[in-house]
TrEMBL record:
The gene coding this protein: ptsP
Keyword Transport: yes
Start and end residues of each Phosphotransferase system enzyme I N-terminal domain: 6-123
Protein name (record): Phosphoenolpyruvate-protein phosphotransferase
Enzyme nomenclature, EC number: 2.7.3.9
Length: 556
């Protein structure tokens, strides 16, 4: 009998297939004591296992490329953390086996993350995956991971570590469903980049029986268990209609009455450019430069390395717009040379622009590298600062850009409610705004963007969040300046219409989402988008807002 479950849809498309579960996690090693004279040998085994796992993660990253590569390299650094390794060796010195010492040391670090306000809870899955891989190597058992199968299937897991998500084979993995995670988790972002339908934060997902047929709708977040023939036919028909609409839509983003809405791509570096070009991106709306800095958390990349990476992206969009976000470090992206190690709540501490203003040499080096990279190119370079709180922040950033000799537009990201509420003041110092809806939702609702348990508050359809978007867009319009959205909200085709109706002037998203947004925008007039936006803001919940907008656009 068919049943319907609902999670959070994070990657468009429909997948129908049999359930296959993620490989079982490594069991807890026995707590047995070793003689003192074996400690040195066990410590050597632990170091070798750590280095082997780190090397494997880097190799997987090299194969995957793009954002996945940066995520996996960050995970490799996690495996090699000197404090963790020192803790492992200390535990071995007092009698633990290598595998038990690794297990206990990681458990201790896990507890520290939970005690830090759980802001880093989204990295617990990454930490557990590193631990499991090291313990598996020490025990000589197979690594936990994606199941072996010759037939396509729908993958079910409690959560997916980046090392597994990055190398999913789309010809075999039709889609995936996880019990944990959120719409802005690493796995969700990578799923969208791959174009694999995905649903996260689905209660009871791991209880689905192996081999049962499910239909996964990555747009609505619905999972239909054992769907009947009529349901399958309806879903496949809807999927075919979506594909036809995608094929028919081309060219610049615009509403049906010709109101232009440039559709830009979010990229992490040169490896993400081909997908953006293939999707017809009109430029880059968010170049996440922090991925350049994750190779070595102890040292900033050289000027030469930065120039080469920036120029490769700028050259790909001649006459196009490329918006570069300067280094956004801190919180869940700590860098030893830049961010404090002992903050009680890193999410509310020295991160983003605050870190750069505390280390002006790092900011100056990056701005000069951007200036050098753009020399002689016809590209429209725009540079923006993350985590701008007020006009003082905006002025400090604009002054730094001018002092570095950067010939570009300077902008501010709106990720803090104060910036949205005082956007017109901020626009006295900068030339454009870019709304980072992921962090803006997090700070508006006090809801960690990486914690699935509060995913309803991370929903970009929340009317309070729409109010802040409208406030920012209205301020930009009053000042004759632009206001784009570069958060994951832009990747939702229906929400893209609402954002357009709120006055947003450009939308930036993962490349895989661009065709969906382009096709949907082309179906409606600007006036329809404005009516849908007003209807959504008049509600009290995210679900009500979504339904109200849909009703307006469908003519109900």
């Amino acid at each position: 009998m068919e049943t319907t479950l609902r999670g959070v849809g994070v990657s468009h498309g429909v997948a129908i297939g049999e359930v296959r579960h993620m490989g079982t996690a490594v069991l807890e090693p026995p707590a047995k004591q070793i003689p003192k004279d074996e400690a040195s040998r066990e410590q050597g085994r632990a170091r070798q296992a750590v280095e082997a796992v780190a090397a494997d993660l880097v190799a997987r990253g090299n194969l995957a490329g793009g954002e996945a590569q940066a995520v996996l390299e960050a995970q490799a650094l996690m495996a090699q953390d000197p404090e963790l390794l020192a803790d492992v060796e200390r535990r071995i010195a007092v009698g633990s086996t290598a595998e038990r010492a690794v297990y206990d040391a990681f458990a201790s670090y896990r507890a520290l993350l939970a005690g830090a306000g759980e802001y880093l809870a989204g990295r617990v899955a990454d930490l557990d995956d590193v631990r499991n891989r090291i313990v598996a190597r020490l025990l000589g058992v197979p690594m936990p991971g994606v199941p072996d199968s010759d037939e396509p299937y729908v993958l079910i897991a409690r959560d997916l570590a980046p090392a597994d998500t990055a190398l999913l084979d789309p010809s075999l993995v039709l889609g995936f469903v996880t019990e944990e995670g959120g719409p802005t988790s690493h796995s969700a972002i990578l799923a969208r980049a791959m174009g694999v339908p995905a649903v996260v934060a689905l209660p009871g997902a791991v209880e689905l029986a192996e081999g049962v047929v499910v239909a996964v709708d990555g747009s609505t977040g619905e999972v239909f268990v054992d769907p009947d023939a009529d349901k399958r036919e309806a879903l496949e028909r809807d999927a075919a209609e979506r594909r036809a609409a995608l094929a028919a839509a081309s060219g610049p983003g615009a509403t049906s009455d010709g109101h232009k809405v440039p559709l830009l791509a979010n990229v992490g570096g040169p490896a993400d450019v081909p997908a953006a070009l293939e999707a017809g991106a009109e430029g880059v709306g968010l170049f996440r430069t922090e991925f350049l800095f994750l190779d070595d958390s102890r040292n900033a990349p050289s000027q030469e390395k930065q120039v080469a990476a920036y120029r490769a992206v700028l050259e790909a969009f001649p006459e196009g717009r490329v918006v570069v976000r300067v280094l956004d470090a801190g919180a869940d992206k700590p860098l030893d040379f830049l961010t404090p190690a002992d903050e009680p709540n890193p999410a509310l501490g020295v991160r983003g622009l605050r870190s750069l203003l505390d280390h002006p040499d790092v900011l100056r080096s990056q701005l000069r590298a951007l200036a050098t990279a753009a020399e002689g190119l016809p590209v429209y370079l725009e540079v923006m600062a993350p985590m701008v709180a007020d006009r003082t922040d905006a002025k400090a950033f604009a002054d730094a850009c001018r002092e570095a000799g950067l010939h570009a537009k300077f902008g501010a990201m709106v990720e803090i409610p104060s910036a949205a509420l005082r956007a017109r003041s901020i626009l006295q110092e900068v030339e454009f705004l870019s709304l980072g809806t992921n962090d803006l939702a997090q700070y508006t609702f006090a809801a960690d963007r990486q914690v699935g348990a509060v995913s309803r508050l991370q929903d970009p359809w929340q009317p309070a969040l729409l109010d802040l978007v409208a406030s920012s867009a209205e301020a930009a319009r009053a000042e004759g300046k632009s206001c784009g959205v570069c958060g994951e909200a832009a990747s939702d085709p229906l929400l893209a219409c609402v954002l357009t109706g709120l006055g947003v002037t450009s939308l930036s998203m993962g490349a895989a989402s661009i065709p969906y947004v382009r096709a949907t925008l082309a179906k409606y007039t600007l006036a329809q988008c404005e009516r849908a936006a007003a209807a959504a803001r008049a509600t009290d919940t995210a679900d009500e807002a979504r339904r109200a907008a849909q009703a307006v656009l469908s003519g109900e």
